[in-house]
Batch of 4 targets.
Target 1
Amino acid sequence: MSFLEYAPAPESTAILHLRDEYGLFIDGAWTEGRGATFPTISPATEKRIATISSADATDVDRAVAAARRAYEKTWSRMPGGDRGKYLFRIARLLQERAREFAVAESLDNGKPIKESRDVDIPLVAAWFFYYAGWADKLDYAGLGAAPRALGVAAQVIPWNFPLLMLAWKIAPALAAGNTVVLKPAETTPLTALLFAEVVQQADLPPGVVNILTGAGDTGQALVEHPGVDKVAFTGSTAVGRQIARAVAGTGKKVTLELGGKAANIVFDDAPIDEAVEGIVDGIFFNQGHVCCAGSRLLVQENVHDEVVERLKTRMATLRLGDPLDKNTDIGAINSAEQLERIRALSAAGEEEGAERWSAPCVIPDTGFWFAPTIFDNVSTSSRIAREEIFGPVLSILTFRTPGEAIAKANNTPYGLSAGIWSDKGAKILAVADRLRAGVVWANAFNRFDPASPFGGYKESGYGREGGRHGLGAYLTTGPSKGGA
Amino acid sequence: MRLIGADLTEKSLRLHLEGLPGVDAVGLERRAASLAGRSIKTTSKARALDTIIRLTDLTTLEGADTPGKVRSLVAKALTPDPARPDTPRVAAVCVYGDMVPTALGALGSAHGDPDDGGVSVAAVATAFPSGRASLAVKLADTRDAVENGADEIDMVIDRGAFLAGRYGEVFEQIVAVKDACRRGDGTFASLKVILETGELATYDGIRRASWLAILAGGDFIKTSTGKVGPAATLPVTLLMLEVVRDWHRLTGERIGVKPAGGIRSAKQAIGYLVTVAETAGERWLQPHLFRFGASSLLNDVLLQRQRLLTGHYSGPDYVTMD
């Protein structure tokens, strides 16, 4: 037997106490949705985890009305310091229940437990801690004198980092004094529903946080609801466009965090071994279900062969399988639909003549899986170099000079993130300066911090989340609308 | 001489070493931490614990070492856990050169190649641990240990010369020591080159020193003497494993790696095994390619081994002192 065949080391699910059915969380209480129920399944086993309610337009009305009442009667009138106390309490509760949340996230989403345990959930707590600290310091955020909350925020989040995206949305909104109605993605509602329990545990005033589950039509009813003052969405560029159209002219403030096709640029003077790690972090983290994933590797031509050879050797050590096993590096693809999209784009890559190589790994019999894959000799016009695949698929392109690297990196309708690998500090700064991307990582990739603003250029969306800028997205210094 | 390409001059050596890709410290430490985070359980853990014992150089390097202490160390090397005779033997005992005859005498017929189940004798030499002596003294120290019957020589590099940029001098010394490892019958004692990474301080320096030691003919590159802190760390060992992996890719030749000092718990050591297997390859997990230089590690491994077999923890009084 090989030493590398590590014995199974599964995280126990005994810590989870899930209900068989979940309703909607409105006005501090659980209520049944009026829409048809649907199951949420584990993408690794395709087994049902729980039955989930769907909110229809009437439910959305009730939730927005509850959020409005909470905003007017309690939350907007509460001193910032007191709002901060609630947020600190939520952060501590999330830390206390961290293992439970990590298991739930990996079960529902398919991501490896080591990522939900070491990345997602710690960042979730960090986000609440960070914004809790801002709640009584809004006057000093540099946004102008006496900034005020906007009112009721409608928030629609994606399935790739379910609880983390919830934290990115809810923490700044509440710190600034808004109340929220949040809709998690249809395939990953579980941790948002567990978060509702935390909201109850923290004794948050009813209506401050409302969680509505459902599919696209629920989300549409929510963002189009006239009682909403702010819309925040993270997801695909296509849906982002629909939302931008729907809210145009309504006076609602909007933040959109959409797709990306990030360039990860490796220069010939890069620390090669760490760059290879960075390429792996960039595209295979969370199965590549990352809007800021480093999905285009731009490697300097004179080190191309060496980098690709080392990358393949490294990829051969990636372990694909049970998301709950502590040694799993690559978990399940979130849904059959997403798997189909990854397969279709990969097939297009082959048809367009790129060289495909996949890491040798055993694909489990049930569930949705895709082996980590690279495409070499990809041309800039190829679909896999232009379109967001949102899966563990890397397109490799080469460049000869820094100028060419910058031109190719910027030659995309997106502009969310980029990475630069070089041992020369001056070169890193010079290149970073010319990249049109919201985040540029130097000798690192996919690292997040609540103090750092995150957001994109062009079709990657507008507005910033995180840091002081993220707070500004939920505040106004303009004249009062009256009423509130 | 194993320098690739160019004639060996101080200048060509410098160009080669300084032309090696840099090391990003944050990235290296992050990768090491992720390897240390592997969860090795049940059957894999049992196998790992036995592998650690088989790869250990059980070490005593004290001014106060006596023949009695060395004999006791050898007894522990041969029978690590008297209550469980199925416990494997360690790879080698590591002592000062003057203790080699004592160690050999105590080993008796068990003396042999650890790849074949024997226990070999390693001696530190070349004015260990500081290396501050003339080359003549270092060579005499080495020859003395080899003549006394040492199977393996653990030499130290001249860190002063390395840090002053006199790479050629360090190189020549390793070549000379290697030559002094030649036995009467023309065979060589295996040469481990101690870089004393705690004194080289930077990862870039450690990568250069690793290449230098291999180019000059070292059979093993070893992190530390154990007399300087920090001794072995996982990021440093990972870096050295990357060098031997790259050397193998270029030349087809396999060089050994020995982290020494500071590895005290079985859990830590398992992290090293994972790092070896996932970096250089599982093939490196044999005595002629990987060793732990340790004294207190063995007892923790034995305690963990007992726990796995019996289902409960015993205590320090259930393993022998040395």
Note: Chain A has 15 helices and 20 strands.
Target 2
Amino acid sequence: MAQRMPQASDTVRELSVEEIRAKFGTGMEILDAEEHMLLSMGPQHPSTHGVLRLLVELDGETVVNVAPDIGFLHTGVEKNMEAKTFTKALVMTDRMDYLSPMTNNMAYIMAVEKLLGIDITPRAQVIRVILAELSRVSSHLVWLGTHALDLAAMSVFLYCFREREYLLDIYEMVAGQRMMVSYFRPGGLWRDVPDEFEPAVRHFLDFFPAKIADYEALLDRNPIFLARTKDVGVISGEQAIAWGLSGPSLRGSGVDWDNRRDMPYAGYEKYEFDVPVEQVGDVYARYRCRMREMRESLRIIRQAMDRLPKGPVNIDNHKIVPPPRAELGRSMEAVIHHFKLWTEGFIAPDGYVYQVIESPRGEIGCYLRGNSTNKPARVHFRGPSYVNLAALPLMAKNRFVADLVAVIGSIDIVLGEIDR
Amino acid sequence: MTRDELAVKILNENLPGVVESVSDFRGERTLIVPKKRIKDVGRVLRDDPALRYNFLSDIVADDYLPDYPRFAVSYHLLSLPHKHRLRLRVWVDDPDDGPETMAELWPIATWLEMEVWDLMGVRFAGNGSLRRLFLPEDWQGHPLRKDYPLGYEEVQFSFNWQEIDAKKPYAKE
């Protein structure tokens, strides 16, 4: 290759103050480039949880300003989805937030179902809730492990990934895939859960509460962890709302809002659970929120397992859901449906919808427009990581560089979802 | 009176004639307002004690090629105190003359508008930090527009590596 790879450091050094200001704009501008030092953190820095580059302006060791530079993982998910049928576009959503594929699937699939105006069966609804909550736990486990690792607590990482492995096995059991599941389909699920699903989830419910207590024993009274997290990265409730924070980052600042309870979807109004809220708004408060959320997720899963109804998981409309495999040998109609569905797909009406669900990271929204064709005319995702990242400069200002690492960990970003 | 109707009523009282039309689809209410007055509408919706849409959830731009006006910009608002969502929509005919920035009302708007400009090319008046966010700084065009091709890349093998490499548009030093 003739081309030299551009280095992050030399691009910054070559820019003049005016160019940096033009590049990083207002609100995130460099204040005094003569006196301060510019440090390019990332994109390969391990504590940025992916390929995030931060241009940090430093006065000594104190952070004066931070400008996030994103886009290293941009793959044009939204554009690509416009070129696929509704069902085939589903696979792109797994690859956005790869730590909780089930909730991404759910946001997109619920938007498709809203656009089509269909309701799914009670059994599919409950299975979706179980898997969405399991994926919340599994996503929080990755967050906890990597966050603690950033703050130099190595062992927590190993424990968390051991338990996450069990959840990935459950994914594999139901969907055949450990990460890119694409399990929720328009009109229901890919297929019903196998018989061993229920004992596996029940076993998880039995052993996992003790594991949460283990993690808390490692961290809650650990003086190093407390010194690195308490009163670090504080953001007030008003600021959090103005900056569009959502999920545990919003609840850590004392704003009592959870889409599952306040604007219920997928039957969440039928479950009894508390929404953990912490008042301080620092890194430790966000940590406490997520730890308590894992327990609440277990409560929801337990209730859902107890009331898991019998019956079909897919609706009976074979214009949307493929007919059962066994029917293809007997029924001409089923063959036609099968053929039409996998070649052409189904046609969605004119109109646009916006579906919001509560993902582990916050409010994930899916805007979907149909135009009487078999492909989405426009798909847009509100990635909670993307919006939460905007508040990073606010939280990290006037703190040490080391605290910046703690703050990035506490807002729980996934770069696949930021860049899309 | 539902919250949907209340929003329209209060807007009409404060800013007569500002709601051009109302559309309901699948239980979601959309208010179509003039591009010039979007900020006034936002201010009333945010500050009126009966409405309090204090959370800007998302800004989405949509391309209706070949229709005219071509672009639609939607603002998804959420009222945390009243638990209600509402969509504002403006039509934009000239993408270089887009709606005014909402950064004064919701600071997050700066960040959301940057994404819209980068991928759809709708310019927000008064937003000083419209820069390439996802795409490289020297990128031409706005990929989410309908007249922008999806594109592909020729596969390089050892026998035609040089030939295809010579055609590749590398970033200029």
Note: The first strand of chain A starts at residue 37 and ends at 41.
Target 3
Amino acid sequence: MISVTNLTRRFSGFRAVDGISFEIERGEVVGFLGVNGAGKTTTLRMLTGYLPATSGAISVCGFDVLRQSLEVRRRIGYLPESVPLYREHRVSEMLGFQARLHGIARGDRKARIASALERVGITDRSEHLIGKLSKGLRQRVGIAMALLPEPEVLILDEPTSGLDPLQRIEVRGLISELAQEHTVIFSSHILPEVEAVCPRVLIIHKGRIAADGSPEELVRQGGSANHVRLEAVVPDAEEALRLLGSLPGVSTVKDCGREGIHRTFEVACEEDLREDVGAVAAMRGWALRELSWRQPSLEQIFSRVAFELEDGQELAPSPAATAGQAANAGAVQASGLELSASAPLSGAGTIEVQGPGGSSAASANKPPAKPTDAGPKRAVFNLNPFDMGANRDLGAPKDAGPREDS
Amino acid sequence: MKGTLTIYRRELAGLFLTPLGWSLLFLALLLNGLYFTQYLELTGGNVDESLSYSLGQALPYWALLVLLPPLLTMRMISEEARNGMLEFLLTAPVRDSAIIIGKALALTSFLALLWSSNLVYGGLCQLLGTAPDWGRLWAGFGGAVLVSALFGAVGLVASSLTNTPILAAFLALIFNVLLISISYVGAWLGQRWPELAEAVINKTSIPNRLTSSFLRGALDSSDVVFFAAWTVVFLVLATRLLEARRWW
């Protein structure tokens, strides 16, 4: 359906997109994920033919995007990030313009426009002036514009930006619904959204594909971070390390230090070994405080790619988990949103979560970074800048949420 | 063709849905009317001469022609590039040439509407007793519209050069002034090489070509071709620039 080979785009010396290749089959829903400036929009623009590639080839539905541009454009419904609409027109007029551009027969126009409006839930606004609509409503009109020609491929560039949490959920539902008939590509920097909707995720970082696969696959491949966390009163740390390390299936055991009388260990293993670890604790008579199974979420994998953290490092959990905290954290979080990919973070190297067929061993073999590397700098990123509230408590007051970018 | 028509309809609607279109039309028509009464008085009631003045023999026509198209074309590409509309148009299933031609046609229609006020003056004069020479009036009107298309095309070239609308308008304005003042350059040359100067003026001067044929009621094919060809040249240039923008 869509095949991209070695796509590169340079902007005056700077490589916005750097030799990426991927294939998308008919009916797939693919989420493009990346921090601001990672190359998502540039890639999508090249897919639509708006930007020509510096090198590389794109074919959509068997047509070359540059040479058979019109054929490709007929088959693509594209919602640019800026949601371009003529403000002086009414919603129905704007959709009528789109219908004529796509050569929809005069007789069908009314019905098609009505059905597109209904799908995005703005039938009652069809006679409103676009300039007078709120951002969220305009966003919906934009989606209706992309849907109207019933394209084979839908390309949506950040379709949920500027929407309130309820509308986000609706748009997510809409995308899932569309996925049944169309190939959908959409970009986002909101993780839970992509995780919820997309069976396939492409993480783009600095113009390259950092990861490609289903969220579960990516999590599995980042599996070196699976571990059982044990917090207990352990009299002899050396012995505990040896005992835990001898359990079958355990790759490494990390001593995370003492807090009061309790000592914390991270027992890295592929499978959930809580019972075994528990049995050792019971046998040695360690007073248990915590025994839990930890798996990295897609979020952590993404943060690692985005912040170029080493394997052992982790961003602190998001404090926006509760609404009250989110309210307090709002200001700091807003500044976090403006981080670009190039912000100097830890001095550590890139981890590579590789696509299907690649080996996940590469990341496991890297030594964990020295804690001193990450220690002082990590504090700045205590707040997770990628959680823009898509999974926050809907009962919370609206203004308590993190800032929307516009 | 269908795409051109769609763009044309949208642009024309756009011109009349914004206050800019209406206010420019209002001011231009007001000026046009005032000047026409002046011409009538100056020529001692000669309707044909007055209409010729109004359609290009006098300066106010050229002033309007130099000012209006840049103000209208700056919104057509430059501003659309800035607010993202161009991204929509360039990914819609229409050719780049259809976008440019549609916009140029819309602009020409708008200016034609403005010049058609002269037809109304002609009709009024006939009602009041002095019938104008309708053939000459229509030829003058046609010439005025042709020249408007040329200036519109120049405006579109300027508009596709830059993302700053006001800069686009300014560029177009300067270029329009240059176009008109070629004949003055010719006159200056005339002090030394009279034959060369005459040739330059006759071949290149837009006002001369309009006044010497259309406004006399004579349709000279060389003049029609001159205006049409240069309009096409500028439209092609604008289309190429629109294409080239993708690479910037």
Note: Residues 2-245 of chain B form one domain.
Target 4
Amino acid sequence: MDKRSFFNTLAVYKKEIQNYFYSPIGYVFIVLFLFIPNILFFFFGGIFKENNATMRMYFAMLPIIYIIFIPGLTMGTWSKEKNDGTLELLFTLPLNRYEILIGKFLSTLTIVFIALIATLPIPLITHFLLGSFDIGQLISQYIGALLMASCYIAISFFISSLTKELIVSFLLSTSILALFTFIGYLAYSVKFFTQLEWIKGILTEISLSTHFLNFSKGVIDSIDLVYYIGMSILFFYLNIRVLESKRWS
Amino acid sequence: MISVKNLVKSYNNVPVVKDVSFEVNKGELVGLLGPNGAGKTTIMRILTCFLNPTSGEVNINGMNIFDSPIEIKKLIGYLPEHTPQYGDMTTIEYLNFISEVRGIDKNKIKSSIDEMIKLTSLEDVVSKKISELSKGYQKRVGLASVMIHDPEILILDEPTTGLDPNQVITFRKMLRRLSEKKTVILSTHVLSEIEATCERVIIIKKGTIVANDTLQNLVNNFTDEFIEFSLKADNFTEIDKEISKLKGAWKLEFMKKDAKDIFRYKALISKDSDFDKNLKDLIKEKNWKLIDEKRNKANLEEIFLKLAGEEE
Amino acid sequence: MKNNDKKIDKIKSYKMETWLISSLFIAIMIIIIFVITKFFYFRFDLTKGNKFSISKPTVELVKKINNKLIIKYYYNDNCREHVGMSKVVQYINDLLKEYKNYSKGYVEIISEELSTQRDREKLDELESKGLSYKSLSEASAGEARLSQGMSGIIINYEGKESVIPQIFTDVGFEYLIDKEIKKIINDNNANIGLILAYGNKSFENEYSYLKQILESEYSKTTIINSGENIPTDINVIMVIGAEQLTDYDVFKIDQFLMNGGKAFFTTSGINILYNQYSQIALPKDGKLFDLLNHYGITINKNLIGDNESYRAVPRSILEESRYPIWPIITGENINKTNPIVKNFKNLGFFWVSSIDIDEKIKNNTEILLKTTNKAWEKKDRMELGLDNYKYPIEQGDKQFNIACAFKGSLESYYKGKEIPKNENENIKYELGRKDSGNTQLVVISNDMFFENSILDSRLVTQSEINLLINSFDWLTEDLSLIQIRDKKKFLNELDKVKPNTKQFDTRKNIVIAVSTYIMPFLIIAAAILINLLRYSRRKKILEEYKK
């Protein structure tokens, strides 16, 4: 990436971040992201029920929380631009598609990052007041949460590029993410014939949620890194292809 | 500067632009004229690398739109139809964003924005959200944003729609001043726009170019005439029925009632048309009275109507 | 022009058609990288104590295996369906994979899930081999569901078979497996001889748990009765108590040590006597004290109380008594360099005496455990009953040693003396005599804490048991498993404050309030602030341009 590309990406990033911060959407996301999982975590099982200083239960529900929250944040990414006609503006500016994509991606990731940082008081205060946390595990959990978020973002970005309608974009993203998330759980809860065990293996390998298990345990495994980064790149690529193909339609 | 050869663009195999070729030289101000849906916007979108042509060749400053889209985009300031903008941004934020993307030097951003704001008289709305601005102001913000990087080529799609007459006049003045230094292509479906600003006009109808000439040449080479006449008769229904049956005119319309029983009509005819004769015959036959008859050379509006108007 | 059309066609077909192919290509690339990383993978285990990686001693152990070792893990479908247990199953499978990865190819892992219905026969066969069921309960939708779970391991090595009947927790799993592997491949250095010299207690009754624990840890443990010689294959002895030893017994221990044997002594200097009415402590006599004294380790005939760190003993449901003569050794008073104790957080003892170390062996001796410096001693008859206690019994301003480890050369107690007469006349001393020798000793001045009554009452935790096992490992110089043994406590409990107290609830509410209510509030405040700043900036800009 040369200097020009960097500044272009930065300009798009700034614009998108402004969009999040000067409109309610970013704040609504963060506040709900703090509120809903916390309530679940504190009052329906979780830290005080288990009486253990660990966030594993919190991070166990994160893949499901992301299913709703990430599309809510990203549904407008391309759909709204198309709807408002600003896509034409953006694409006739001297920007590469990938610069726009990365700028948008990073800004969305920043919001998720802020939301995750805002959950830090749970482990930190508990650590000092009630019981020591395993800091290494915590670090791995947060890294994993961020990587998983980028994968979810990449997928819902791609879906947002397919449609003009915000609501269609949201619902479609939610369904696809739910599918990719739940096939992992499915593999555990459905009985397979011994001959079909390999299907179970494949389902667990492609699921968005199973690759988070290691991170939530406190282990960073190469295969999970490859999965999340690979999936993100794949969907970025598809996304750029879809945008590119619009020029031919 | 801009050369378009055999440009074809189809959407789902339906051609919208059919074999269009034209050239625009440096410093020219060219109008793309045509009714809605004629393909003006599509041509402009291809020029600005937003769409790719189905076939044909487009070169801008010697660069092919496939080979160096980014370089071409840098040369062009493009104002799309309806001037889409990020409504949540204020004018100044929006101009700032555009300047950053355009790669304007950090130290010069402020001065170039100031210059644009002065040029388009946006001082009162610099801090307003764009979505809260009136259509006219939005257009002006759009114009400011496309000129901020001092582009060699300006491509403006329907730049005056939504502006009030005063604004239109200011805009035209500005455009003429600009065209001394820049190449401008603007599209419109309003003829007066072209008359007021352009040196050359390209008339497009259903995706093909029907005329490509300077206004003067267009008028000079156009031989059609129109006849204005009034009749005295008792029964308007009958007259209207009979007159509309007359052959030889490619456009015929009732204009007004001069008096209780005097009806005025206007007909556009080709030079060698026998409409005149037919009309005289009819008057004689029906025993009407021809009050007056005026023959005039057709003006631009009629030319446009003939070239681009709907076929009967 | 034709050229250009071709170019468009080319670009177009490239863009339109190949994007499918190229994304397929990327997907395949990802799968290939996926498969490659399956073989050449790396793992960063960020957890404290690397819970999810096998530790260095295990890696070394696994590398020692030079014949086929098969670890077969069996679990039934009930385990997989149970939420908590499924994680354990996953963990076991994960960790066993590591065993295979680090071996030189001799370790084979078989993991088999058995269906409760279809694999009836197989399950019965496993049950007959020693695997056993455990009921798993699970609350789902307000209903508790019970099921029978089976999860156990069978290890085969050179025709031998070792069975771990139940594994229902990931806690200490690695240690469990390592222990069995060590036993089955005979990598165990400790052959333990047990000598009980404490009142008329026996390994069948009062110390049966202790014997069980040792038998499960080590491949060979032998009880040596009074008058019997110590078998030659034994390299460590554990001596509990002191008073029941004859002169011959002391002699055989002395000579065992002179010949390179090692010993673990647990005895206090007092006798605890109790009946229905009272509990008293009286100074204890025993020939073993003279032996240890000769070596330079004196176990005083006193009772130690610690006014600062002690156990609270429940008197009734509501009341707890402070009981300073059950001291708890904690923090700085635990030696932080010796591997036997360095990882412990606290250790509790019951009626201990103090230990003094003679100058001559000071350099070779490490004090393992000390009381705080607010401790006191009592030397005569002492009432132990709770009713006689009103804290503090005495003012304490001294610090006492209660455990030490010695490593070095000692001179025989029987140097130049005759072999004492053995009361058991059938047994003669047949081994060679030595006047000095290198040895290792661990001495703890407490003899009660491995008694069944104490182990039963759950006053003893895993830490105290590990103290025993670590001591053996240190004595046999096999320190490999010591560090895995403390890999047991993975769950960090909320233990800074006692649960279900007012203080706990207050702190809990602080956590909830800050993270769930104050943080969103701060975010909203930030939102307002950011937008106000924008507003004022807008105003400023407007004024600037209006001028």
Note: The beta strands of chain A are 219-221.
